[in-house]
Protein 1
Amino acid sequence: MYLQQKPRNLGRPRHDQSTKPTKSIILETATTLFLLNGYKIVSMDDVAKSCNVTKATIYYYYSTKADLYTDCMIEMMVRISDNIKKVLENDQPLKIRLYQLIQIHLSATADLNLNNFMRDAKINLSSEQQEQMKRSEEKMHEAIEHVLLKAMEKGEIPHHDGKFATQLFLALMNVGNYRDTNGHAIFPSADEMAQHIVDFFWKGLTMP
C-alpha cells in the first residue's frame, strides 16, 4: 500500500502578488493563462488586463508573445525541477517516492492536454526559443535520472542505463494523461493510475 500524500501542483505559480515585482506578476499570470487557454487564444491584451497593467508594460518586458511564453515555460520547468527534487529526495523507499511524484503530476495536469498544448505553441517559437525550452526540459529529466542512479548505486534497484530508465518512466507517466474520445482516463482516479504506472515501471526495472 502506498503512502497517501495530498496532491500539489508541480509547476503552476502561487498567487500572492502583494510584494512581487511587476515582471514576476506578468510571468505568473501569463503562465496560468497559457495553461488554461492555450498559446493561440491568449493575447498580450489578455495578460495586461489580468495583471491590471497597460499593454505597454507587458511590451516593456517582452517584445513578443513568443518571448513571454518561452520565459513562462522555462520558469515553470525550473519550479517543476525543484519540486521533483523535493518529492524524490527524501528517505522513503524509491517506489513510494515515484508513486507520489506521479500522483502529483496526474492531479496537476488532469485538465490539461499537455501534448497539444506544447505542440500548438512550438510552431510559433523560433529555433533558439525551442532550444531554450529543450534545455530546461532536460534539467527536469536530470532530476529524475539523478534519483534513479542513486537508487542503483545503493542496490535498491538493478543497474540500468540512467537515461533509458528516466525516459521510460516519463513515457509511462504521460500515459496517465491519456483520454479517449469521451474524455475518460484509463483508470477512474489519479491514485489508481499512479499505482498501475509505478507497478509496471517497477516490474520492468527489477525483472531478471
Protein 2
Amino acid sequence: MDSALAQMDFETARALYEWQVELGVDEAIGDDPVNRYEAEAERHATEVQAAMAARPAAPSAPPQPEPVDAAAAAAVAAARAATLEDLASCQGAFDLCDLKKGARNFVFADGNPEARVMIIGEAPGRDEDIEGRPFVGRAGQLLDRMFAAIGLSRVAHHPDEAIYITNIMPWRPPQNRDPEAAEIAMMLPFVQRHVELARPDLIVLMGNTACAAALGKRGITRLRGNWTQAFDRPALPMNHPAHLLRTPSAKREAWADLLSLKAKLNGLP
C-alpha cells in the first residue's frame, strides 16, 4: 500500500483526498493507536511546568535576629557607669526588660548615697511607681520608723546617721507580682554596680527577692537575722516591712535584727 501511494501521481492523490473529506474524515489515522486521554494529560503537565518555570521566585524570608542575652547586655551597660548619675541614666534607658513598658516611673534610689547602710528591697509597688521613689507607701513609712528607732534616717546628711535605699527591680511588676528569675538576672549587674559606686559599709537585704538576687537563696524566715556576705560586703537579711504589716508578731524579730545592725555598725572602724 505504501509503495502504491508513493507511485501515485498528484492528481490521483488529490482526488482521493477530496473524496475522503467528502466522507467526513477529519483526522489522519496512523498504524499505531493513540490514547487521547494520556496525550491530554501530558499536554496539561507540560503547560503547568512551563507556567511554574515562568513564575517569579518567591522572596526568601528575612533572616531572624539572634536572641539577645539581656543579662550580658545589662552587664556591659552597667560597667560603663562611672557615677551614680551615669548608672541611673543607663539603667533607665535599658529597654530589654518588659516591666519598663507597663510601669509609670523608673524607681532608682532614695536617701543619702554616702550612707554607711544601704537597703536593697524587692520592687516598687503602686505608691512607689507613682512617686518614682522606693519605699514610700505604708511599708516605706514603717521602714522609716524602724530605722529611726536605731538613729538612722533617709533624710540625714551625715553618713553615720543616714540610710540609702534602692530595689532589685526599678520598675513595678504587674499587680505587684514577684519578679521572675530572668528579670532579676538582667537587673543584677545594675545592682552590683550600684553597690560598687555607693560603697556602703553594710547592706540590708529586705525580703526574698533581694536575697534571691544577692545570695542566690530564698526562704527569708530561715535567712533573716544571720549575717552573711553580699556584693563583697557584710549583709543582713531582714523581713520586708510589708510582711511585718501582715504579720505584726514578726516585729519582735525585726527589732532584734535592727539591734544587730546597730551593734555591727558600732563595731566597724
